[in-house]
Amino acid sequence: PGTIFVVATPIGNLGDLSPRAREVLAGVSLIAAEDTRHTGQLLQSFGVATPLTSMHEHNESRKSAALLDRVARGESIAIVSDAGTPLISDPGFDLIAAARQRNIPVIAVPGPCAAIAAISVAGLPTDRFAFEGFLASKSAARRTQLESLVAETRTLVFYEAPHRLTEVLRDMAAVLGGDRRATVSRELTKRFETTYSGSLAELAALAERDENMSRGEIVIVVTGAPEQSHDAVALDAQQLLRALLDELS
Ligand code: SAM
């Protein structure tokens, strides 16, 4: 068979397309793109003339079978999304899962990813983190999701739509606690790149005052819950035991 290349593309700054990404995109026989017009412009600015086909969330499972057949017959293809790394809150999962099942080679051509870029500049713990993608757009569902994360000790990473920033930060402050340290990174790699850093309560207040903060594309990074020390856990267990014994006596 041929190979499927999963190729990361810039998240705003064309200079971030790697030489290897360009080489691979120029060398394959077909590129499956989320939006062929958008990717067409990118390819044009790099002088790449490889044919494009569209693959997005609505046609992906249908499209995958046909693409896999071509690769099985010996063609190599690439998949790209509109920005950043495919499959990270972007299409590609059906294709790659099916490729793995059919033992078709899949090769990563890594590069930009907004989540990783935001964590790398946040100054919050990076040893363990949980990528949560997009939260629900309705506040009630969002609060339920956030409640399930209250005890999570890993750093949390969210993608968010700009027009929801203020209400999301307010919900986060209410559910996770206003004191938690967090960052809001907007327009990473672009002209107006800014990272705001503070407690969730401060960031929520700032978003309300400063309308620039919710312009453009946004990643929110939030410190995890404090680790409960072994001593605290042991103390809890002792208290519980005492309460149970009291009940019995
Ligand atoms: N696959 C992409 C990646 O690797 O980052 C993410 C695609 S997802 C559909 C788009 C979301 O990523 C945006 O809503 C925003 O939360 C985040 N994002 C993408 N580009 C960004 C940028 N330049 N600055 C900040 N956030 C960005």
Automatic annotation (TrEMBL):
A Pfam family assignment: RsmI_C
InterPro entries the record matches: 4pyrrol_Mease, 4pyrrol_Methylase_sf, 4pyrrole_Mease_sub1, 4pyrrole_Mease_sub2, rRNA_ssu_MeTfrase_I, RsmI_HTH, SAM_MeTrfase_RsmI_CS
UniProt entry keywords in alphabetical sequence: Cytoplasm, Methyltransferase, rRNA processing, S-adenosyl-L-methionine, Transferase
Subcellular location: Cytoplasm
Keyword hit for S-adenosyl-L-methionine: yes
Domain Tetrapyrrole methylase intervals: 4-204
EC annotation from Swiss-Prot or TrEMBL: 2.1.1.198
GO molecular function: rRNA (cytosine-2'-O-)-methyltransferase activity
Record field: catalytic activity: cytidine(1402) in 16S rRNA + S-adenosyl-L-methionine = 2'-O-methylcytidine(1402) in 16S rRNA + S-adenosyl-L-homocysteine + H(+)
A GO cellular-component term linked to this record: cytoplasm
Family as reported in the entry's similarity comment: Belongs to the methyltransferase superfamily. RsmI family.
Function noted in UniProt: Catalyzes the 2'-O-methylation of the ribose of cytidine 1402 (C1402) in 16S rRNA.
Identification of the protein by name: Ribosomal RNA small subunit methyltransferase I
